[in-house]
Queue: 2 jobs
Job 1
Amino acid sequence: MGSILFFNILRFVALFILQVFLFKNIGYYNLATPFPYILIILLLPIGIPNIVLYTLAFLTGLCVDSFYDTLGIHAAACVSMAFFRIFFFKITLEVDMVESYLTPLLGEMNFKWFLSYVFFSALVHHTVLYFLETFNFHQLPYTLMSIGLSCIFTLVISLIFSFLFYKKKKNRS
Amino acid sequence: MRALWLFLRRYNAFFWFILFFGFSLVLVVLKNNYQRSSAFNSSNALVGEAYARINSWKSYLLLTETNENLAKENAQLRNNLQYFTTHDTTRMTTVLPKIDSAQVSRYDFQVAKVTNNSVHQKSNYITLDKGLADGVEKGMGVISSNGVVGYVLHVSKHFCTVQSLLHPDTKISVTLDSTDVFGSLVWGNNIDYRLAMVKDIPNHVKVKKGEKVYTSGFSEHFPKGIYVGMVMETGITSGDSFLDLRIILSNDFAKLQQVYIVKDIYAKEKRELEALNQDNG
């Protein structure tokens, strides 16, 4: 339990610093920007109570917002992603799994599940983010392209992170 | 009552979502109304400090280029200075310039360092390490040795944020080298931070490629004659009787390090006078 808390805090600090100082400056023209900080919320323990999950998602979003000068936009995107996470767990995991405090990482879950989990979560996050940012439907193709490309970008970087910290599945009994 | 409670319990994920999402949306909308609350942006002391520290390391990588730019600017200023200090009137080919003493001290320049910068967002902002304590006020113009940068949007005690030229709401009055017509400089729908558009140039004006673009001095933010960029593409019509130009910006926004904050001493007077026009409709 203590180590779970420790690793989550460590992950928060590391990903947050990387996001605001490194990934903020990386972009493919203005089309795609990676947001791997969403892993902070995605990798929280599975059985975390809903209200705690939402609060953490909201606060993470707010912290990122203050560095991006976009008050509320990242917070809204993170909260939507938290909602999607609960929904996704409900339809893909078994009940005893949902109540455990496992970290949904690559070593614990199979690859296909993890890939779709990160991809669809990123899709939800980026869709809310870009539509709130533009706040209109004038340049719809451009916005959609940004969303798609950013999703792929985020997914690739998230996978690199997960492979870097890959751990073999432990034998629990 | 019990049924309602059970209903709320069963779908709690959804109701929490509505609550938190609603709150975030309120923040977004509030930001549009009040131009963002000052607590959560990069002119905030904590965030500004963090950016300043990271940037002090980053600036080492650009030292050569910064040096070169400053040397170039020095040479240019020295050239201009020669014009005023030469006493030998027989050697002067042109007439001695008339100096309007009211205009000479109209603008104050203050050096500031860039602590945070972005070029990849839709709306780009820059944070500088000067604030209220250094006499910076909202609406002051910001230039660099290469050209126009933007104007001050928010000020805290030791930092200020600048709405950069790479922002959809930024509009700067500019004029061309050859003729005195003026248009407005905007970033336009560009996704490239090296390019910008000049809009509303009258149709009858012949514009050549490679022509230089300067600020016109009509806005209170910038003095007259600051180099902005070079015309790259002409004849983009936006309908009607106006012409659009695409220009290459002289400023490399990605490598911004040293900038000057411009203070117009008569800004308040000018603004008050112009406000009278609007009162009369």
Job 2
Amino acid sequence: MSSKEQGLHLVLEVWRQKGPEDAGRFESYVLDSVSPDNSFLEMLDQLNEKLVKEGQEPVAFDHDCREGICGACGCVVNGQAHGHEKGTTLCQLHMRSFPNGAKLVLEPFRATAFPVLRDLVVDRSAFDRIIQAGGFVSVSTGSAPDANLVPVAKDNAEKAMDAAACIGCGACVASCKNSSAMLFTSAKVSHLALLPQGQVERERRVAAMVAQMDAEGFGACTNTQECEAACPKEISIENIARMNREFFKAKLKRL
Amino acid sequence: MSEPAPSPGSSARISAPIATPRAGFLHAGLSSVTKKYAVAMSGLALVGFLFAHLAGNLLILIPGAFDQYAAALHASPLLPLAEIGLFAVFVVHVALALVCARANRDAKPQKYAVAATRGKATLASRTMVITGCTVLVFVIVHIAHMKFRAPLFGNPTVETGSQWVLRTLAHPLGALFYAAGVCAVGVHLSHGVWSLFQTLGWNSKRWHARLTCLSRAVGALLAAGFLLIVVYALLRGGR
């Protein structure tokens, strides 16, 4: 019988950490009969069912929508955030992407600003605080306006939409050698800076969000572009250039 | 103006609060983007200097021209001012880059068990600190040797600047040292030039490929230009 009919045989090296204060270590598990049609998270479910049956602690991992739009899931598979497939969240990564007998090393996202809570779960509330610092529109814009009542240039609408596709999963931070959050922050800054509704707070927003990003302990961008390649929503580093422009325009205006 | 006071948000953090790594005096209250901007601006000025430096140095290929140029340069009352300015730009570039590098290291205290990239990072982009420190050491030795005439590569008893340069570069250790130094500069700039445009915000999807090409071309051109002088000195046997 082929491996497709039998299912995949996998060797998993999983990071196990009881809590934030625990040092953590890798533990090995062997998993058989994994359907190639399973998602990565379903494979983890299968592992956890096995562990529970054996009386062991299941592996903690984040997940919510399981359809690639919420940004809750994510871990590092063989050194790559969300695994090796392009433009894919962990929940949309399927086991057919791996050969039979594959050895998979699973680690949590690593960053000072993303402390590990347990196993593969990290605390990404630093992102929430960056949003709280300025990633919103607080002026009254009334009820939903009629379509095209507020004119937005097609090019700006497209760019704003592309930036708004960021789901805040943290893969950019995880894949960056400096754990920089500049792709995330710049996507949020760009999204609002490109739209008429974001203009009132435009300067205050970028200054506050960059300051919060720094205070959280994220590193600075050295333009290696790994974030863009790892991003499940393929957010462009063009946004980082835009954020830098916005930041200095804001500083110059305030002088 | 002052930057808005950010809260580290320790109340909302479930686990132990992290230290604030930007608190050191070296950061001088500057944001990461401001520091990067200063590194990029000073880098741009240094690239400009390198082109001028190479143009002047290539005069060594024309007999007599280099010493004439050097004499004119040293006679200029503006030279000390230019030297102080260049030194200041260099210090800003190195100091802020190292401050950022330290903060970047603190931001990622634990590496992954499996090292992998998505193929976007290049050797040059991942080793900017290493090539930068190599260039720093090179520049210190280079200034001690060329400006203050430290007898490092043999001790040629020569009169003119061009003789000092050519005999140094014909010395095996001198040739190797200068070749390695300018190669480090080339590798550094092959990422650095593109990177400075991105940091200054002068980049977009449309310009990205052109700027990466420009960056590699600038790195290769400057390294090749300076290497040409080394090769010329070796072929001439230091005369």
